[in-house]
Write a structure and sequence with these properties.
This protein is mostly helical. The chain has 12 helices and no strands. The longest helix is centred in the last third of the chain and has 39 residues.
Length: about 325
């Protein structure tokens, strides 16, 4: 297992390296001059030239990339132009808020998706299966940002049951109940699409397992239906479901970018939106790199869990 994990980590290095090149080139192709955007009304030709030299933007793209990647190996992601603080400090501070949102959404979509998929498979072609299939189809087809705005309008503006934005109350609060109160709407919004995907694939995996001979044998031996479903069928189907959950973990982290913007959640997604609008190259590059590394790590964990569950993979 240690050898397998080491191989997967080594395989992730070229992926992350290629990603640094793509992110760097995309940011370099964005129209406009970062120095002009930073200086604003003070953007005289002399000031722009001086700031470009101070930031190293007067060098060629190749030289800028080599300097950035060299600093990256030393654990230095650069310094934010607009915030005037190390990128690593800002990214880690924001990423902790994103992990709270994405982690809650992942737990929520995993639980709801697994339960919905199991019920749908066990009650195949019944009213429960049809109702779950309809809800899953609606959930997958609904844009998350529109759903977020709808939930804000209904539950925050009209019913006033949940706050419309932020991570904590402006006045007072700051404790766990306050966090959960603010977390409810964005976490549910972020989990809807992933819940539908997990539910559909769980249903498919369960139906395939329930048709196997050993399931019929277990029933013929007189085992209870609950034991057949959860001890035998679900355990076997879980091997196929775990990679899907790993992929959805990456999806909820990526989806947090626009969900955080809708709910004004102070995570890495809202940070990236502001950094892109101000052409803060270092902050964008550092933020995207951390998100990509988290995506690779989640998929690695999913593969490890799948290998532990299925001895054939070992």
């Amino acid at each position: 297992m240690a050898s397998y994990i080491a191989k997967r980590l080594l395989a992730a290095i070229p992926v992350l390296f290629g990603l640094t090149i793509i992110v760097f080139l995309i940011m370099a192709m964005i129209p406009g001059d970062p120095a002009t955007a930073i200086l604003g009304s003070y953007a005289t030709p002399e000031n722009v030239a001086k700031l470009n030299k101070d930031l190293g933007l007067d060098k060629t793209l190749f030289e800028q990339y080599i300097i950035w990647i060299g600093n990256l190996f030393e654990g230095d992601l650069g310094r934010s132009y607009t915030l005037n603080r190390p990128v690593l400090d800002e990214v880690l501070e924001r990423f902790s808020a994103t992990l709270i949102l994405a982690g809650t959404a992942l737990v929520l979509c995993s639980i709801l998706g697994l339960i919905a998929g199991i019920v749908s498979a066990v009650r195949q072609y019944g009213w429960a299966d049809k109702a779950i299939t309809l809800l899953v189809l609606i959930g997958i087809s609904t844009p998350s940002f529109w759903l977020g705005l709808l939930l804000i309008f209904v539950f925050a503006v009209n019913l006033r049951l949940f706050p419309a934005s932020g991570m904590y109350a402006i006045y007072g609060g700051g404790d766990l109940p306050d966090l959960l109160h603010h977390l409810a709407l964005p976490a549910f919004t972020l989990s809807v699409v992933a819940t539908g995907v997990i539910a559909r694939l769980t249903r498919t995996a369960m139906l395939e397992v329930l048709r196997q001979d050993y399931i019929r044998t277990a029933r013929a031996k007189g085992l209870s239906e609950r034991k057949v479903i959860y001890k035998h069928a679900f355990k076997s189907a879980l091997v196929s479901i775990i990679p899907v959950i790993g992929i959805q973990a990456g999806f909820v982290i990526g989806g947090a970018v626009y969900i955080e913007t809708v709910f004004q959640w102070p995570g890495i997604g809202s940070m990236l939106v502001k950094a892109i609008s101000t052409r803060d190259l270092m902050l964008v590059q550092g933020g995207v790199l951390v998100v990509a590394a988290a995506y690779v790590l989640f998929n690695l964990l999913a593969d490890v869990v799948q290998t532990l569950l299925d001895p054939r993979l070992r």
